[in-house]
Amino acid sequence: MTRGAQYTFQNVFSGQVIYESWTLSFYNVFYTVLPPLALGILDQFISARLLDRYPQLYMMGQNNYFFRLKVFAEWIANAFYHSLVLYAATQLIWYGDLIQGDGKTAGHWVWGTALYGAVLLTVLGKAALVTSNWTKYHVLAIPGSMAVWYVFIAAYGSLGPMAGLSTEYRGVVPRLYTSPIFWLQTMTLAMLCLLRDFAWKYAKRMYWPQTYHHIQEIQKYNIQDYRPRMEQFQKAIRKVRQVQRMRKQRGYAFSQADESQTRVLQAYDTTKHRGRYGEMASSRPTGGTK
């Protein structure tokens, strides 16, 4: 993590670390492993129903809208911004080992653990900001990971030194968890880092909205779309074309003024008066023979 690199320059490459070794190893394999899985597998920025209704949204993936070099550079720059804010702020807060209420100093490992908690909450808060569709699995992955860290540090920081493991944590947990500065710092620094992210996200949606922003609002507020659906529209077009082809091929059955057709109709017309042998009145001779 970049905070470790900054601390390395500050202590002039003396070899001193800012975090306990096992806690540092657990960062990627334990505390932050679930949010990427929840986002990558379960998150949907727009539902499948609306994607089917607005298929032009698939062009965003074809054009690499979310995976451009510019977007990657913005994420890297934002990560450095978070790192500078967290490290500089904790340096000021815990400067001089922060004399606590009982007159004793907090110590190096109390400061490092407090910084670790602020970093973790910032990372998980960023994951919460970019989540589009919250499910129970997102709740377990994001807030749940933070809760797991609090429980793990309390248990491991107390039992580990007793078992001869991670002796750096000896006496850290009582001083850390009873300090109001620790709890206030964790929440305040995470909010300070994510305030810029939230403001930028709000500005993009309100003043420079993209097409998918409008469709997300349609999904959120369940706005009805009265335009014909694509499938129904295509079926109607096919029916109209079939009728047009039938008319071109067959024509109208009685559209021609042909005398033969008129005679056929009259021959089968039962409303007309006929002679003894069924002949039409118009077909009988007008005058008799003498």
Q: Which class of secondary structure composition applies to the elements?
A: mainly alpha
The largest sheet is: none
Oligomer: single chain
Strand content: under 5%
Helix content percent band: 55-70%
* Count of the separate structural domains: 2
Distance between the termini: 128 Å
Q: How many individual helices? A: 14
Shape: rod-shaped
Description:
There is one protein chain. The protein has 290 residues and is mainly alpha-helical. It folds into two domains: 219 residues, no CATH class; 43 residues. It is 65% helix and 0% strand. The chain is built from 14 helices and no strands. α7 runs parallel beside α11. It starts with a helix and ends in a 23-residue tail after the last helix. The model has no long low-confidence stretch (mean pLDDT 80).
Quick structural overview:
By secondary structure, the protein is mainly alpha-helical. It has 14 helices and no strands.
Layout: helices, strands, pairs:
Blueprint: H1 2-10, H2 21-31, H3 34-42, H4 48-53, H5 58-62, H6 69-93, H7 108-130, H8 136-141, H9 143-162, H10 172-177, H11 180-207, H12 211-220, H13 230-250, H14 259-267
Helix pairs in contact: 6-7, 6-11, 7-9, 7-11
Observed structural traits:
65% helix; mainly alpha; 2 domains; rod-shaped; 290 residues
